[in-house]
Every structure is written in structure tokens, then in C-alpha cells.
Amino acid sequence: MQQGTLMRKVKSKSWKKQRYFKLQDDCMTIWYQSKRTGKIESAFSISDVETVREGHQSEVLQSLAEEFPPERCFTIVFYGRRSNLDLIAGSAEEAQCWVQGLRQLIEPRSFPLTFALVSCTWIRDWFQKADKNKDGRMNFKEVQRLLKMMNVDMNEDHALRLFQAADKSESGTLEGEEFVLFYKALTQREEVLSLFQDFSEDGKKLTLLELVDFLRDKQLEDEGTEELAMELIDKYEPSETARARHVLSADGFLMYLCSPEGSIFNPQHRALWQDMSQPLCHYFISSSHNTYLMEDQICGQSSIEGYIRALKRGCRCLEVDCWDGPNGEPMVYHGHTFTSKIPFREVVSTLGKHSRVESSYPIPSSALQGAGGAGPQQRGVPEDSRSHGGDRPLKVSTSPPPTPQELKHKILLKGKKIGRLEDTLDGPRDEAPDVSDDDNGAEAEEERRRAKVGGTQRDSALQKDKETLAQALSDCVVYCKSVSFRGFQEARSHSRPSEISSLSEAKARKFIRDAGNEFVRHNAWQLTRIYPSGMRTDSSNYNPQEMWNVGCQIVALNFQTASMEMDLCDGLFSQNGRCGYVLKPPFMRDEETLFNPSDPSSWDVPGPVTLTIQVISGQQLPKVANSKDGDIIDPLVRVEIHGVPADQAHQETKYIENNGFNPRWDETLQFQLHVPELALIRFVVEDYDKTSRNDFVGQYTLAFANIKPGYRHIHLLSKDGTSIPPSSLFVHICITE
């Protein structure tokens, strides 16, 4: 890899260009250049790479399957919205060299090494950016430029003092270890050092007992505290001598506070910690809308990448809109629009490969609603499902309703069905088949309004499908038979727990407003799916919180759109092993519950919980996208509470002028939570602007149930939910009942 390799970079069936790829000496950067011009085209950091996929695991490489064997092909997948990089090596051996080499470079390491590596990478990246003449040294003028780039507005005299203190060789420049010294002086955490010294008798170390006192008094760790203290010293103390003496230095203390154990997110809740043996309707299920779309709803690209990204994010409920295609092959796309199309077999193959990556719990698939006719294409869908995805669509029914635990590794097809679910077990009856309704009628109505693209109304193409359903396809629908919703009383009298109704966001809001308690009761025994308005042609999202407040399980969002709504979704489902299932609170699983999110008198709670958040400081906040080189942010922190209407609130700190590197706020915000079981807490950092809307800097969202009290770091995420190390907030959390 460091010697360099000539490979084909592929963008389409016709665009295949040779490029020379090389891993740089730092083992953290890869650049590539054109073979023809010799010009360096681009470079990327290893830290930007999320994963590497072998073989034909992209649409482009699948289209070249006959030309290039899978063992020569691989795909580099980046975090965020950066496009994947499809490559074809000259041989299988070269491909394996890069695949295995990249995987070793990006694989997770133990936290102390990762923490040191992030800091080291951060230092080196800034050094290389600021070293304009590339001589491996940095003079004071270059250091001043560096400070501006790093979001620091520092007094010139103070900057010169730090520079001279680090210049041990007195050469007037910083190189190697001297720059590291300068960086450490720059990143000195006075607020952490002060906390450390409060518990350290000599101000230089924490003995085992002093660390135990800190963990009990400030971090509210009450079980196995001595064992925990020993673990933290062994894990985070960088000095071998200190570890042998069972003491923690100031550096080790900071490493602990920046670690998963020092995070605001309770580490015990990252693993699977909830009961998974309840009926499906007792869980919130991470759900996507039109999963195949990468962009808007009218002309956007359809791609298997949409499914891969959603599954990697923990999504379990997917949409596969299947329509008749050419040459007898079903296609997946957004019907009656100009979105591109992908073969159904590729979608099923992708689900087979990626559905268990993040979770083995069932995938309720809102599938096949647009299948055109009753001909061979519909009948071929179950065959494709088995041949490409394995025999995983569920075809056996049991009573009582099944649980996520019982349905592991299964794909549940949600769709229309001929006759009753019982007939799947007992055999068909002589009576005329009843083809159930779906939400196509409601969605088609909205599509009529949005389909006036270019002034053309395509009413005839939007008529509800009335053709007979293929029996083989109908037989695949178990537990998630789609039925029209005709009111709560009607559902209680005639529906079954194995059925599901789909409601538009507008209809759901009407039920929330007019019959909140009935809606909660309904969702205690039957599944409800909510989908976005057809007017959201830009793939924007509605607020899922109001739907979760009444217990709706399948709240479908446009995963491709970075938004506050997706932050809430990621925040709720970041717990429980990221399995895509979160158990609803007990009062939402009771069919006789009195709970109504809009009526405080219906809440059986002892009194509000007080959440007190002291926002202390920020660390190395990123610059605002598309800002000028010399611009430095004026950061403020806003804390938002999302929950029942009475709990909705937000407060913010003052802004700190010209300091995105190590701002200090030391401000306390306080909130009253009446139904904490449903509350999500969102921390947002913005760049204050007095003349226009504030710019987004970073955010972090989590459920109240997952908050760990005490002194905690909040590791910020970008707009699209990816990590942006080492950016963080330092806070103190207090919860009183």
C-alpha cells in the first residue's frame, strides 16, 4: 500500500479510469493521482473510512459483474454523505492487500490507544495544514495562522509566550515534539485540573481511595466502586509506574472523563438491556420511509445504498416498493414519479447480506405495495426473496402474538392478503377472497397533488390497484396484514393483533388531538405505521416525538435527510444494542391505560423530575461549513427537551465570542420533566449570528433514561449523525425526583 498500486476507479459502466493509489508514510492518509496526467486528484484520511466491502457490493460494480470477477473488486465506504469509492484491482492478491490493510487501519482499538491516536492525528493534521512551506517546521507567523484555523482567537503576547516555552531548541521554530508541547499547553483543561485537585491531597495524583470518593460523591456510582476504580486505573492511566501503585495521574483522569465510562450515555445501556420477549406492538421500531431513495421523492436516485445505510443505522422496518419492470423482472422505485429504478433481486440480495450487521431482530418490511399486476412478476417476488435473500420471509403463524426474540432472523412482509390470516394455517375457504386495503389510497390521494410535475396531471396512473393478488405473494404475509383504519371502536371489534394500519402524519395528528387515550390503548395491542405527507417531495421529515407519545410503533422517516427529526430517531434507538427495538414504558403497554400525552390529569406520576445541567466547557469545536479561513465561531449551547407537550422546552447559554477551541460557559440550565420515560434530550451547539439565523456546529441526542449523572463529556455528532472527534462538551448532570 505504501509502495502504491495502479487500480481502476469506477463511476459507471462506461467511466473506468486508472488511478495510482498510495498510503502515505503517516499510515493515516491515502492519495491518488491520474495515470495520464500524474496530477494528484484527491486524498482522504483513514478516519473518514467507515468500512470496506469486498466483491460486487455496489450497483456500479454489480453492473460490471460479467467484465470483472468479484475477487478483484471492492468498495470504500465513507462516513456521512460522501460518495463511496468503487475500485477494481489488477489482481485478486492486490485487492486483498488493500481490503485487509484498510480494515486493519480502521478497526476499533482499545480506548486509550484510540484517544491518543485521535489526539495524535488531530495534531499532525493541523501541523500539515499550517506548515505552508512544507519544511517540517513552524515559525510564529505560521502558528498565528494555525490558531485562526483551529477556532482560537488568542492574544498575540500570550501566543508568543506559549510558542517560546515550547521552543526548547531556541531556533525560532517548532518541530516534532516541540509542536506537541505547544499543543498540550494550548489544550490545558483548567476545569478538569481543578476538579482533579479537589479530590487529590497532593494535587499530583488520585490514590485508589480518593478515586473511589470521586466516583461515589460526584459520579454517583454506588455498586462495586472499588472494583470500578481499579478497572479505570488499569485502563486509562498512561504511566506504568502509576498503574503498579494503583494511582491515577491528571492525564489518566482526563482520559477517563473522555472515555465511554465518562460519557453522558450510560454504558450499560449500549448493550442489549431490555426485555425482548414482549409482543411486537410493545416496542418502538426504527423505521424508514421509501428506504431506496437517496434524495427527493420525485426525481431522486434509487439505490441499494439506501438499504445498507439504513440497516447500518439500526433501522429494522424498511420499504420495498415493487413494480412491474422490463424483461419480466420486478423493479423497485417510487411509482408514478421520475425516480430511478433498481432490480428487486438486488434489493433482496442486499437485505440478505446486510440485515444482520447491526441486529438479528426481525425486519417488518413494508413491501410490495405497488406490485403492478397479478402476473408472473408478482408470483416471482417470493421466489426472488428465497433465491437471493434466503428462506427468511416468515410463513408460520402462532398465537399469542410473537415477540422479537421468537422472530429473530426473520423478515416480516407487511402487505395485502387474500382472505384471513387464519386461512394461511387452516387452508383456503370456499368463500370469495377478500383483498385487504393498504395505505395506497391515502398516499395516492397525496401523490395526485404532488404529481403535477411540469404541469402534467397523471390521474390515470394513480388509480388504486384493483388487480387480483397473486396467491404465492399473499401467503408470505403473516402478522403484518395491511388493513384500512376505520376508527378505534371498529378496530377493537373486528381487527386482530396480527394486523397493521398505516396512517398519514396528518391523520395521526387528528387522532392524537381528538382521541389521545384511545390511540395509546389501540397501540398497546396492535401495530400502527405512520408515513410522511405526500407533500414532502423534498424528503423532509415530520416530528416523530408526537407519534411516539401515543405509542405508535412504526414511525417511518426519510433516513436520507439530515434533520432534527432524524437526530431524535438516532437518539432514541442508540440504546439497547442499537437493535432497532426499544421497549415502550409500562403505561403504554396496558390496554386499559388512562394515559393521554395531552392531558396531565391522566398521568399516574408521583411528581416532576428535575433535570439540572451545568454546561461547563467545549473542546475543539468544528468550524462552520463553508466558512472563511479567518472566521472563528461564537458558540452557544442550546438544550432541548422533546417529550409530551407539557415537557417540551429549550434553554440556551450565552454565546462566547471568538472561541471555538476551548469555550467556557459555566452556566446552569434546569428543566421539569413530568413524563421522563418519553423524554429525549438534545444538545445543540450553534455559531451565534446577530444578523441572521445561527449556524449549526454539532449536536448529540439521547433518551432521558440513558443519562448518566455526574461530570460527563458529550461527544458531538455532525448534522448527518456521524462522529466528529475530538469535539465535545463538558457538563455536570444532576437528576432529582
The level 1 CATH classification of the largest domain is Alpha Beta
Oligomer: single chain
Determine the fraction of residues in helical runs and give it as a percent range: 25-40%
Mean pLDDT: 84
Number of domains: 5
- Return residue spans where pLDDT drops below 50 for at least 5 consecutive residues: 109-114, 428-468
CATH architecture of the largest domain: Alpha-Beta Barrel
Count of discrete alpha- or pi-helical segments spanning 4 or more residues:
22
Query: CATH superfamily of the largest domain, please?
Result: Phosphatidylinositol (PI) phosphodiesterase
Q: List the strand order in the largest sheet.
A: 4-3-2-1-7-6-5
Number of beta-strand segments: 31
Strand-pairing-aware structural class: alpha+beta
Cofactor: Ca(2+)
Domain PH: 1-107
Protein name: Phosphoinositide phospholipase C
GO molecular function, one term: phosphatidylinositol-4,5-bisphosphate phospholipase C activity
Question: How is this structure best described in words?
Answer:
- There is one protein chain.
- By secondary structure, this protein is α+β, with helices and mostly antiparallel strands.
- The chain has five domains: 5-106, Pleckstrin-homology domain (PH domain)/Phosphotyrosine-binding domain (PTB) (PH-domain like, Roll), CATH 2.30.29; 115-187, EF-hand (Recoverin, domain 1), CATH 1.10.238; 190-262, Recoverin, domain 1 (Orthogonal Bundle); 280-390 and 400-420 and 470-588, Alpha-Beta Barrel (TIM Barrel), CATH 3.20.20; 606-736, Sandwich (Immunoglobulin-like), CATH 2.60.40.
- Helix content is 28%, strand content 23%.
- It contains 22 helices and 31 strands.
- The chain has a seven-stranded antiparallel beta sheet, covered by helices on one side. It has a six-stranded mixed beta sheet with strand order 19-20-21-22-12-23.
- Strand 1 and strand 2 form a beta hairpin.
- Helix 12 (304-312) runs parallel beside helix 13 (344-354) and helix 13 (344-354) packs parallel to helix 14.
- The longest helix is centred in the first third of the chain and has 20 residues, at 111-130.
- It is globular, with a radius of gyration of 28 Å.
- The termini are far apart.
- Mean pLDDT is 84; it is low at 109-114 and 428-468.
